[in-house]
Design a protein that fits this description.
Layout lengths: L1 H7 L3 H6 L5 E6 L2 E6 L3 H19 L7 E5 L2 E5 L3 E3 L3 E5 L11 E2 L5 E3 L10 E2 L1
Parallel strand pairs: 4-7
Antiparallel strand pairs: 1-2, 2-9, 3-6, 4-5, 6-8
């Protein structure tokens, strides 16, 4: 019976943290969703967007000054509602410093999801 008691102590966030490195996990509406890491084409599109957006936005050359980050772990409710957008941006006055750990508790001002031609369906765990 100790194993059953131990299993009950694992939160959804504990389960998310225990996922293999090649799996992305998100917690949405109390459900853990997983999907494989992006494909090469998806990653290329992601890189191209970062190059295009970096100058005007991330460096403040001709656009609003945003901190644009790749796949941040955004916590709408700490360790309870967690998403990992492809890109997210924060106005620097709202997030002047990066968090010390991997959790971003400040909701982004801007997010970008790259749609692949045949994205894998999210699977609940």
């Amino acid at each position: 019976m100790p194993n059953a008691a131990l299993a009950q102590d694992f939160t959804l966030y504990d389960q998310l943290l225990a996922l293999p490195e090649n799996i992305v996990g998100e917690i949405i509406n109390g459900q853990l969703y997983t999907q494989p890491r992006p494909s090469g084409r998806h990653t290329l599109a992601h890189s191209e967007l970062m190059v295009e957006l970096g100058g005007p936005f991330d460096r403040g050359r001709g656009g609003p000054w945003l901190a644009i980050l790749t796949e941040p772990e955004v916590h709408f409710i700490r360790d309870t509602e967690v998403v990992v957008p492809d890109l997210a941006g924060w106005r620097r006055e709202r997030m002047p410093n990066l968090p010390e750990d991997h959790r971003f508790d400040i909701v982004p001002d801007w997010v970008c999801e790259i749609l692949s031609p045949a994205p894998p369906a999210r699977t609940g765990r």
